[in-house]
Amino acid sequence: MRQERLREAVFLVPGTAWLLLFFALPLVIILAVSFGTRDQYGGVLFNPLTLRAYERALEPDFLPTVLNSLRYAGLTTIFSIAISYPVAYWISRYGGRRKLLLLVLVMLPFWTSWVIRTYAWMMILGDTGVLNGALQGVGLIDEPIVILNTDFAVVLGMTYGFLPFAILPLYVSIDRLDPELVAAARDLYADGRGAFIHVTLPLTMPGIIAAALLTFIPSIGDFVTPDLLGGAQTITVAKVIQLLFMSSRDWPFGAALSFLLMVATIAGTLATLRILRREVIG
Amino acid sequence: MSDMDRTPGSSRPISRRSVLRAMGLLGVAGAGTVVAACSSPAATSAPATAATPTGTPAPTPTLEPGQTPPPTPEPTPQPTPEGELNVYNWDEYIGEDTVKGFEEQTGIKVNYDIFDSYETMTTKISTGNSGYDVTFATGVDVPGLLARGLVLPLDLSLIPNIVNLGPEWQDPGYDPGNQHSIPYMWWTTGFGYNKANISEDLTSWEALWDPKYANHMAMLDDYREVFAAALIRLGYSVNTTSDAELDEALALLEEQKPLLRKYTADDIGDLKSGNVWLSHAWSGDVAQVSWSKRGKDVVYVIPSEGGIRGSDAMVLLANAPHPIATHLFINYMLDAQVAADNTNYIYYMGPNEAAKQFIDPAILDDPTLNPDKAMVAKLQELLDLGPDLQKYQERWTKLRS
To answer: Are residues B393 and A233, on separate chains, in Cβ contact within 8 Å?
Structure first.
C-alpha cells in the first residue's frame, strides 16, 4: 500500500514542479507586488504593505472599463458559438470521410502567429483596405466607412481568433450525440425544429458551455486585439493592465487588477462548472 | 468526471483536495517570503555598479620648466572589441546600410533590436540587466538613468569622432561634456496632416480638437508628448508640476478623446495608411511619410502656439556585455558620412556639424526638418521631472482607462 502511494507521488513530481515554478511562483510574486506601493521611478516598494491598489481597482470610475471588457468578451462568446455550432454540426453530420481534414482546416490558421493575423485584419478593415475598396468598387458606398479602430473591429477580430477554441469542443459534443435519439424524437411527431430544441440542444449543452468558457476566458484577458484593431475608446481591463505595467509603471495597481481579473474569472468558471455538473449529472 | 472526485476526504492516497490545500499553504508561505525578502532595503532598486571599460590611455606626463618634452609615446593600442554588439533602438531610426557598414568595417556582429514605444524600452532597461549594450534614450532622461545606475560613463578616448559634433552639442545641459551619452538626432513634435483629405491649412493645435476630423485623428501614445500638447494649448510650461494645471490639461484631453481614432505608436504607418488624416507626430516621422509615394500629400506643421524639441542620445548601458564594441559603434555613428547617411534616410537632423557637407540639401533647406534658430527658440524642451513624473503617469492612466 505504502509502495503504491510512493509510486503515484513520484509521477506527480514533474507536473507539480512545473506548475509550482512557472505557474504558482509568478502568481505569488504578482500577489506580493499588488500589496506594495510604487516608488518614484516606477519600481515597487514593499515597506508599507497596503491595500491601496485594490481600493483604486474597485473605484466606481473604473466600472465602465470593466463593463466594456465584459461586453467584448460576451459578444465574442455569443458570436463564436453562433458561428461555430453550425460549422461543428455540419462537420460532424456531413463530414463523412473528410471529417479529419475539415477539422485540420479549422485549426490551420491557428498555427500562424496571432499578431500577424490581426495585422491582416487591419489591412482588410482599414479605410483604404480591402473591404472598403471592394464596397466602393461595387458602388455600395462613396466614402470609406470607418470600420477599423471601432468596437465592431475588435469583436470581429476576437471572434475570428477564438473560433477554433469554440468549434472543437462543440464538435466533440455534437459528435457524441447518438443520431438514434434524434430519430426517436422524429418518430414521436417532433418536427426538425422541435427535435433540435428538445433533444440536440440540451444534449450538446456541455459542449456549448465548454466552448463558451474556452472563448470567454481568453477574450477577457486579450489586450492585443483591442490594441491593434481598437481605438482610443475601446479600452478594456487587460489594456489598462498593460498600460500600467508598461507606460505608467504602476506595478502594484496593475498587479491588483490582474489578480482581481483572475479571481473573477475563476469564480465565474467554477460557478458555471457547478451549473454544468448539475445539468449533466443531475 | 470520474469517480475520484466524489470520494470525500482523503481516503484516496492523494486527493485533489489535499494537493490544492498544499499548494494554497505553499502560496501563502511563498507570498510571505517574497514580501519579507523584498522589504529589506538592499533589494529595492539597488543600482548595479559595473566596471568601466578598460583601455584608458597613459596619463600625459607633467613637464618641469626647461625640460624638453619626451618623444611622443606610442599610441595606446586599441583594446580588442568583443565579437558582438546588442543594439536597442527605435524602429525606422537608423540609416539603411549603417549597421551593415559597421559590421563590414569592424567585423563585429550586430544584433539589432527595435522598440516602438519608449516605455517598453525604459521598462526593459530598468531591470539593469537587459542584455543590451547601447540604446537611444531621450536626452533629458540621461540624468535620471545615471542616478539609477543604469548607464555607464563613456571612455571618450575611444570616441575620437566626437569632434564632429556641432559647438552647441559639445556640452549639453542634460549631460555636461557628453560624459555619459552622445547626442544622436534632434527633432521637433508638432502634427502632420494629409492635404488630400483636409483642404484647409492647419496651423494650430486646435486642429486636433476639431470635431470635423473626428475618427480620423490620432495622438501619440506618449504621455509626456500628449500632455505637452494640451499644456501648450493652455499656455503653461510643458514641465509643470502644478496639480491645478495638470488637471486642466487632463480635462482638455478628455474632451479630445472621443474625437480620436487612436493613440498611436506608429504615426508613420497611420498617416501612410490613410486611416488617420491628422496626427500628433514627430518631425522626422512625418518627413518619412511625405517623402514616400503613398504619403506624398502629408505635410508637417509646427503649431503657432509652439511645439516640443528634443534629442536622442546613445548611452552605454550598465552590465553591457560588449562595452568596447559599443564605443566603436558610437564612434562609427559620429563619422560624418555615416551620420549624413542616417539623416538622409530617416529625415532627422543630427548634431553632427561635419556631416552637413554630405546631407541632402533638400533636408537642410526644409524648415520643418531643419528649423532655424529663431524657430527653435520658440520650442519647449521636455525636462526630467524626477518623482513628479508620477503626476503625469497617474493622469495618463485616468485618461486612457
So the answer is: no
